[in-house]
Write a structure and sequence with these properties.
The protein has one domain (21-192): Rossmann fold, CATH 3.40.50.720. The chain contains 5 helices and 9 strands. It has helices at residues 36-39, 57-68, 80-90, 102-112, 137-165; strands at 3-5, 11-13, 25-26, 32-33, 48-51, 72-77, 93-96, 117-120, 169-172. The strands form 3 sheets. Strands 7-6-5-8-9 form a 5-stranded parallel β-sheet, sandwiched between helices. Strands 1-2 form a two-stranded antiparallel ribbon. It is globular, with a radius of gyration of 17 Å. The two termini are 26 Å apart.
Length: 197
């Protein structure tokens, strides 16, 4: 049951309001255990969505709305504890996923099995008021790893699953921070999120 996100950021379901199916959970080592309905191979009747950086804010709300639309939602977060709490609140399956960790990305790609929607939401911000000439480049590098390279690597790793689904979708979430219109003498945050506008 696909959902479409309108300009107001609210998801609209493409179904008659049927309640969502059973939710999954993660094992103690972070492995994904999807709902019984998905494990039984009835994937044509369920849309599986992964949302990164979803333990709070926009990501958590996207998870809630997709779950209300009947999706089996994988809620990705760096902290397993935060993922568990947020997933319980959103009706989703928690997934320990740090987009800067190649090991986490490889594990997720190997264990998910089926995926229809990837929402790249994970991001961090840093003090963009710093001058470019004196900025702490380790902080800028961390933002680039999280905001640019992490979603890029994750998308590459999950692309075979999305293609196999026959209805795969990738959603890249961004904000005004990535706008090129406000660039001044500070550190250029848009360089850590190009293409995500």
């Amino acid at each position: 049951m696909p959902a479409h996100v309108g300009r107001d950021g609210v998801a609209a379901c493409d179904h008659d309001g049927d309640p969502p199916g059973g939710r999954g959970r993660a094992s103690s080592d972070g492995r994904v255990q999807t709902s019984q309905r998905a494990r039984d191979g009835r994937r044509d009747s369920v849309t599986v969505s992964l949302v990164t950086g979803a333990n709070r804010g926009i990501g958590l709300e996207v998870c809630r709305q997709l779950a209300q639309c009947g999706h089996d939602v994988l809620l990705g977060a760096r902290s397993p504890e935060a993922a568990e709490r947020a997933a319980a609140e959103a009706g989703a399956t928690p997934l320990r996923l740090d987009v800067t960790s190649s090991a986490d990305i490889e594990r997720a790609a190997a264990e998910i099995g089926h995926l229809d929607v990837l929402v790249n939401n994970a991001a961090i911000t840093y003090d963009t008021w710093q001058r470019a000439s004196t900025a702490d480049l380790s902080v800028v590098r961390e933002a680039a790893e999280t905001n640019l390279y992490g979603p890029w690597r994750l998308t590459q790793a999950l692309l075979p699953l999305l293609r196999r689904s026959g209805r795969g979708r990738i959603v890249n979430v961004s904000s005004g921070v990535a706008s090129l219109t406000g660039m001044g003498g500070g550190t250029p945050s848009p360089t850590t999120r190009p293409g995500r506008r």
